[in-house]
Design a protein that fits this description.
Elements: H1 2-20, E1 24-33, E2 36-44, H2 47-54, E3 59-69, E4 77-91, E5 96-102, E6 107-112, H3 115-123, E7 124-131, E8 140-151, H4 157-162, E9 169-176, E10 180-182
Antiparallel strand pairs: 1-2, 2-7, 3-4, 3-8, 4-5, 5-6, 8-9, 8-10
């Protein structure tokens, strides 16, 4: 009996670790200057997800880029954030790839002939202006948290509530930037 439990727990850990270590957030790099906070970040996918995209499966990735204020002895305070929804789809018959991006205001749809260029455009965020005026923030230590989630399937809300044991997300990963200080006027 002990051997079965040990074997099953080892198998579970191997399966869990293969899912966790395949996707990784690159960055985030934070630049503070010229009265604004700019963020660069990206997502590195594993071979399984890349092959699914190449075969024509549609994937949706949601990027959350959040600014937190560091508090000593208290939970960190959420200050503001941005959300980007990226959708990737490959059409192997036509030999083209379609990507869409929505940031809450602007919807962009692009067609690509190269799979690598689609992945680069969609999964690497450059020069995202998180704060326009640093003077609006209190002098303190801050950090940026990047969270990326991938939807496994879109279930109708009622079915999602009834079949609560069926996972709706393929993965959720997050990473924090190093803390940086915003100083007040001197």
């Amino acid at each position: 009996m002990r051997k079965r439990v040990l074997a099953l727990s080892t198998l579970f850990l191997l399966l869990l670790s293969s899912q966790l270590f395949g996707v990784e957030i690159v960055g985030p790099e934070v630049r503070v200057g010229f009265n604004e906070i700019m963020v660069d970040a990206g997502l590195s996918l594993d071979e399984r997800i890349l092959s699914e995209l190449k075969s024509g499966m549609e994937k949706e990735f949601t990027f959350y880029i959040d600014l937190f204020k560091v508090w000593r002895g208290w939970p960190d305070e959420f200050m503001l954030g941005k959300k980007f929804v990226q959708t990737l789809k490959g059409d192997s018959i036509k030999g083209e790839y379609i990507a869409t991006s929505f940031d809450g205001e602007t919807y962009i749809k692009k067609r690509f002939r190269s799979f690598a260029s689609m992945v680069s455009w969609t999964l690497h965020k450059k020069d995202i202006r998180l704060v326009n005026h640093i003077k609006e923030l209190e002098p303190a230590d801050y950090f940026v948290k990047i969270t990326v989630e991938s939807r496994l399937r879109k279930l109708p809300p009622v079915i999602g509530y009834l079949l609560f044991f069926v996972p709706e997300k393929d993965f959720v990963v997050s990473k924090n930037s190093p803390a940086f200080t915003i100083e007040g006027e001197k």
